[in-house]
Predict the 3D structure of the following.
Amino acid sequence: MATPLPPSTPGVRVRAPAKINLALKVGAPRPDGFHPLATIYQAVSLYDEIAAEWAEPDEFTVTVTGEGADLVPLDDSNLALRAARLLSRTHGPHNGLGVALSIHKAIPVAGGLAGGSSNGAAALLACAVLWDLDLTGESLRELAAELGSDVPFALLGGTAVGSGRGEEVVPALTTGSYHWVLAFGRHGLSTPAVYRRFDELSETPPQAPEVPPDLMNALRSGNPAEVGRALSNDLQAAALDLQPQLRRTLQAGLELGALGALVSGSGPTCAFLVASESAAVDLSVALSAEGVCRTVRRTVGPVSGARVVGWTTES
Ligand code: C5P
């Protein structure tokens, strides 16, 4: 059984990545309201970091700094807090555990990059390590799936095929490293609202969507130009309908030389694939100059999922 340690005990720091959906095929809503998905996730080098430190039993707190911090809820809907409580309830001792979480964000809120899910995965791992819980990888994945559709992938990282509502993930066979330029939108998009718009716009979505074979082949070949041509997102039309200015962002990136462009997940972040790091620098500068987005970031994928990166007493 884990017992609270003296206050001098260091807390743990964990970071977890953002994701892009290289393909997102969406089916008709299931009886539970979720949509069946066939997706290819890729984790990219844009990370939120969480520090977890001991608190009194049953005391769960969270603070948030960084990108879009004022937009993150601090109540019980916060995914990191929910993760900590869920872990304590299901795997903690009867006399209770507590934690003080501090999140530093780099992933935009409501950006289609799974920032909240990254925080949920990071909090699960951080608390499991902090509380020294005896937990299998499988139990951690089950808790992650309970927290949200994208949380298991944020634990896993890499490039993976997602099915079910997105929570069933299997690593994909891929070669190479991919350079992405991300264009953050001026306003976020609500994921449920984008799915609702998708339902309104789609006449006959398939019951069982499938991942596109051309993208799987392209990822095996490691050729970014082929991957760029095979990117696709069934939610893109809905996201563009809700934020029509994103068309200009996508168009600008393609005209400026991107090998492929798409809205990431439910948007509004636009992701541009380029051939090299220097091409990414060129496209970032050019996109910023066009004024078609709020901020531009360069990232590389695939990268690993949630990982311990240090202790809170370290400078
Ligand atoms: O699973 P998660 O909490 O991240 O999902 C957020 C919302 O996105 C759901 O409440 C639902 O409206 C929508 N969603 C969906 N189908 C999925 C995943 C998410 O309709 N496969």
